[in-house]
From TrEMBL:
InterPro entries, alphabetized: MPH2, MPH2_C
Protein name in the entry: Maintenance of Photosystem II under High light 2 C-terminal domain-containing protein
GO BP of this protein: photosystem II repair
Species classification: Eukaryota, Viridiplantae, Streptophyta, Embryophyta, Tracheophyta
Maintenance of Photosystem II under High light 2 C-terminal domain residues: 2-61
Length: 61
């Protein structure tokens, strides 16, 4: 049951967008944008993990 709610889908979309920005900024060697995109990606992924009920199931995450 992954990403079934609107909120979960929004979190996944945010993660995908942030990850795309991260790849772009890294390929351009833009350190500041890369840092920002990394934090955004991690935050969005954490939110999705929480919404999906996987917090306790992903050890060391």
């Amino acid at each position: 049951r992954f990403s079934s709610s609107t909120e979960e889908k929004s979190a996944v979309d945010s993660f995908n967008s942030s990850l795309s920005s991260l790849f772009t900024s890294v390929s351009k060697s833009d350190i500041n944008s890369s840092k920002s995109a990394f934090v955004s990606s991690a935050t969005a992924l954490e939110k999705w993990v929480e919404l999906a009920g996987l917090t306790g199931k992903l050890k060391g995450f």
